[in-house]
Amino acid sequence: MPDFTPIAVGVLLAAVFAAIVGDATGCIRCEQHYLGVELEMALIADKIAAYEAEHGVRPKALDELTFTEGVVPRDYWRRDFLYDGDRLTSLGRDGEPGGIGEDADVTLAL
């Protein structure tokens, strides 16, 4: 079983809480999708933190990280996460910035 950092645990707990409570639109299905997205983002954030601890800087791109499967994980909708060094973003179901429900963006500040 992998060790989870406080970042991963915090994101996971927030996602579980959101899945239980649901969002303002009552979209429990949406919350289930976002639970997976947020968990993937937390795991990527852990990899970024480990890279930064080893190299003294954050990676310039996610493909500089080493993942068990050999490829950078994608979001629930099979799109690449956006990474700018300070945050990870999934553009939701529609793949466009903004949106509500399943189309809403999910961003994790690093």
Oligomer: single chain
Helicity level, as a percent range?
40-55%
Compute the CA-based radius of gyration.
14 Å
Overall structural domain count: 1
Note the run of SSEs as H and E: HHEEE
Sheet with most strands: 3 strands, antiparallel
Anisotropy-based shape = globular
Measured by DSSP, the beta-strand proportion falls in: 5-15%
- N→C terminal distance: 24 Å
> Low-confidence runs (pLDDT<50, min 5 residues)?
20-25
Structural class: mainly alpha
* Total DSSP E strands: 3
Strand order of the largest sheet: 1-2-3
Q: How many helices?
A: 2
The mean pLDDT is 82
Tell me about this structure:
The chain has 110 residues and is mostly helical. It contains two helices and three strands, in the order ααβββ. The chain has helices at 6-21, 28-55, and strands at 82-83, 87-90, 106-109. It has a three-stranded antiparallel sheet, with helices on one face. The longest helix has 28 residues, at 28-55. The model is unreliable at 20-25 (pLDDT under 50).
